[in-house]
Amino acid sequence: MKLFWRIVVLLFTLLLLYQGWIAAHVWWWVGHNPATSAFMDDRLEAMQGKNPKAELQHRWVPYKNISDNLKQALIASEDAKFVDHEGFDWDGIEKAYEKNLKKGKIVAGGSTISQQLAKNLFLSGRRTPWRKVEEALITVMLEQMMDKQRIFEIYLNVIEWGNGIFGAEAAARHYYGISAAQLSAEQAAKLAAMVPNPRYYDTHREAKGLMRKTAIIWGRMGDAEIP
Fold first, then answer.
1. pTM, full prediction
2. By C-alpha distance, which of 151, 88, 163, 90 is closest to 120?
3. Mean pLDDT per 10-residue section of the chain, whose length is 227 residues
4. Is 53 helix (H, G, I), strand (E, B) or coil?
5. Parallel, antiparallel or unpaired: strands 165-166 and 160-162
6. Burial letters 114-142, b for 16+ CB under 10 A, else e
7. Left (φ > 0), alpha (ψ -120 to 50) or beta: where does 85 sit?
8. Which position among 16, 118, 131, 173 has the lowest Cβ density within 10 Å, counted as fewest Cβ atoms?
9. Within a 10 A sphere around the Cβ of 150, how many other Cβ atoms?
10. Element (H, E) at 188
């Protein structure tokens, strides 16, 4: 019995140390830019498994050097209540649950930009109950230590936009040959529409579903409030 409790205490201590490690990273990134993310590392490993010379396209740019069009497009597409919520959109989660229940499978998610960032920075792509709990804990850390603009700035710089394409600057140059600061409203809407399935849309840029979603996002951008 003593051995059992020793193991429990050890596991609890390791868990606390891991949470402290994550919290320290979040605190550091308040004023310093992350050079990579867990998701970027996973993608690079997968790409180099097929081609050892493969590299990611990624270039950090400050928030002010990213077009407001792209910021509005992503808010309109991914998280309309971003500036108001504290990390979780409970209405969105409820709607996603009801939609998934009706379809009998996962067809919609209720993740906010903060939750997506938490997952991209620290977690693997495997879907497990523990990962969702950890995602929630990291989301709380992000929201408590960073303001909305900083969360959004990091998000804009680390999300995937194609096969090995990460961040707004790399995406703008890959798809349009321009900087992230120069993106038009229509270009931004299309990039935002690609976010849920970027590697597919990288090779299917005129897909009907992509064009339809681009038009919807474009129409909603005027109502998007950005930090």
1. 0.90
2. 151
3. 75 86 96 95 94 95 98 96 86 61 50 94 73 90 97 98 97 98 98 96 95 96 94
4. coil
5. antiparallel
6. bbbbbbbbbbeeeeeeeeeebbeebbbbb
7. beta
8. 16
9. 16
10. helix 185-194
